[in-house]
Design a protein that fits this description.
Blueprint: E1 3-5, H1 16-34, H2 49-62, E2 68-72, H3 80-85, E3 89-94, H4 97-110, E4 114-118, E5 131-137, H5 145-155, E6 156-167, H6 172-180, H7 194-203, E7 204-212, H8 228-245, E8 255-263
Parallel strand pairs: 1-4, 2-3, 2-5, 3-4, 5-6
Antiparallel strand pairs: 6-8, 7-8
The structure holds S-adenosylmethionine.
């Protein structure tokens, strides 16, 4: 495993607010990944397992031996290890050196080759067309989306694909919870809105969106009860039906998996 350390600060007039945002993100995630990184809000991931499984499946379908993959905003290395075990040549970047130290430690303990780099996702230090796959979990909504997608498109090969799992920002109940618990997330993060999805549609020829978790949120109070798994499975089935039949409900999902191909350079 190799470890490089690169950190790109924005320079030039008007960039101090960008650098302040990056510093806030780095500080928050250094603290999160340096200590117990379980936040109370993390308990809600108990109801998003179907979304995460869909994301992992979509990523793994793309991976083939020798492809070049970038885990974008990897934290402690969410998908990087599996991608590497499946034969990909993996680079993982994040703004948080503490998160990357954890990724590096896991990789060396497990004997997995992953190149980890401290890097701003909005200013990647990679040549154009470097990657066959860019994958990210919970990263786009921490970034200025226009700059981030410019970079994702730039570093993808023409045949390259990108897969992301991200929270959506339209559900009023979820937004109320977010407003009541500001300390559990960064000041600048912004779950994706319709206009963000429009931006993605403009930058890729094919955009597949899969929506998860609406009624499934109601299973959350049962998460420590025996009835949880069966209740969740029923509600996930209901959500699949609702999202398929009633398009206007999709934006109120909590989680979105994005499968993007045909980057428009
Ligand atoms: C919600 S965490 C997700 C981490 C990891 N993908 C996971 O699923 O566990 C968001 C990550 O984005 C990283 N991040 C935030 N802003 C960034 C930026 N400008 N460039 C690179 N990484 C950034 C944070 O340090 C953090 O690790």
């Amino acid at each position: 495993m190799s470890l490089g350390t690169v950190c790109h600060a924005a320079s030039g007039p008007g960039n101090s607010s960008v650098n302040e945002r990056l510093a806030r993100e780095r500080e928050f995630h250094d603290e999160r990944f340096g200590g117990g990184d379980e936040r109370p809000a993390d308990a809600f991931y108990a109801v998003s397992t179907e979304a995460e499984a869909h994301y992992r499946r979509a990523v793994r379908e793309i991976v083939a031996t020798g492809i070049k993959a970038l885990e974008y905003g990897c934290g402690a290395g969410s998908e990087a290890f599996v991608l590497s075990e499946l034969g990909a040549n993996v680079t993982a970047i994040d703004i948080s050196p503490v998160a990357l130290e954890r990724a590096k430690l896991t990789a060396s303990t497990r004997g997995i080759a992953v190149s980890t780099l401290v890097m701003d996702a909005e200013r990647l230090a990679f040549a154009d067309h470097s990657f066959d796959l860019v994958a990210g979990s919970g990263i786009l909504h921490h970034l200025e989306l226009g700059s981030a997608i410019d970079e994702v498109v730039r570093v993808l090969r023409p045949t390259g694909r990108a897969v992301f799992i991200e929270p959506l920002g339209h559900n009023p109940v979820i937004n109320l919870y977010r407003r009541l618990t500001p300390g559990q997330r960064t000041h600048d993060e912004h779950p994706l809105m319709d206009e963000d999805l429009d931006l993605l549609r403009r930058r890729f020829d094919r955009v597949e969106m899969s929506y998860f978790v609406l009624s499934a949120l109601a299973a959350f109070p049962l998460r420590n009860r025996a009835a949880f798994e069966s209740t969740l499975a029923r509600l996930q089935g209901l959500d699949r039906h609702l999202f398929y039949r009633v398009a206007r409900l999709r934006k109120y999902a909590w989680m979105l998996v994005l499968e993007l191909s045909g980057p428009r350079f």
